[in-house]
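Form P-L/3: holo structure prediction, ligand pyridoxal-5'-phosphate.
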Amino acid sequence: MSTTPNLATRDQQVIWHPYTQMKTAALAIPIVKGEGALLYAEDGKTYVDAVASWWVNLHGHAHPYIAQKVAEQLQTLEHVIFAGFTHPAAVTFAERLIQILPQGQSRIFYSDNGSTAVEVALKMAIQYWQNTGIPKRKIIAFRDSYHGDTFGAMAVSARSAFTAPFWSYLFEVCFIDVPVAGNEEETLKQLEAYALAGDVAAFIYEPLVLGTAGMVMYTPEVLERLLEVCQQHDILTIADEVMTGFGRTGHIFASDYLQRKPDMVALSKGLTGGTMALGATSCNEKVYEAFLSDDKRKTLFHGHSYTANPVACAAGLASLDLLLQEETQQHIERIGQRHAVFAQQFRKLPKVLEVRQRGTILAVEFEADGTSYFNKMGDTLYSFALEQGVILRPLGNIIYIIPPYCITDEQLDQVYQTIRGMQQLITGDRY
Ligand code: PLP
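OUTPUT (holo model):
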């Protein structure tokens, strides 16, 4: 009999996991291999990765093409300081991103993840106004948004239980309601009131889908009107496309549904197809030019050791190659169509409050069981899905699918079937 502890036990002895109450958490499930939309556990069990490993994976796990490009880059140049030096992968990736980003985006500033992409955008916006000699201080954001876990990103995110220990350290933000159906005019009024009061540097928003809020969706039409108000009052706009980018909503960017384009865009997650940690903030020439000066104090003094890591940029380039292939675009369409059919059938069932869908993102909101975010329902549904061989990490009483684009019809059916099982569990029709 072996006396070596298994991986889960070794993990428990040395690892502190994110978003996990370590005192009560179950042992982490050791995953030893990934292929397509499947993850293989050490004990031989397989899981359909219906949440694309925290919304990052686009083309399936351990994709051979990305692996090859990453290996080639590793053998050529693994990293180089990015102040005063550059390299082919960073430049080519920036050129290609600019080709597909919303019109007007002309500069790429690299960082390491979604939170830092947001930090950079906020710093650009605040310093933009200082550099132009009209310092404006206020930032507007949606009340329920999530932009990351670093301090600036937390400040512009919902004042949720997650950030409660830090509230007194966060800068003040002008929060407006999310313009969900029926609430559009009220949100517009709130934005206009802040805009008229003046001193607003920027409006940051998750375009069309607020992810962590529970895949809360609103229309391009109302966002268009919000951006129009910003334009009228000379307020910079920051589209946080960290989750919505790279095909998630059906178009390459959620901003593509709109005529008006943002001044800045924050990118991460799908930026490398879920392979390497990378963030990027793009901006237009208007923002960029405000930092060009003989006065060195107008420099954007921001950077990370791994800024523009060549291996991450190579992964990004490979992922972009795959994303733009006809076949991937067809998969995105296929998933959207199948989601729509499921949504149509499922929204009529008891205990189902709402089914929301845009492109490859589908969310089912069950009637809440009266408890908070830290509720039991989420835990129960999560465990139930795992038993069915599906990773569906709920947001409280909301279940969502945001799969790798290569997910097969059979795997999607398994996910839908699991969600049907959840509904039966909640209504008591099961067991
Ligand atoms: N912005 C949005 C819209 C997100 O959904 C997230 C993460 O979920 C972030 C920013 C933060 O990204 P990261 O977790 O890579 O720091």
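COMMENT: The longest strand covers residues 105-111.
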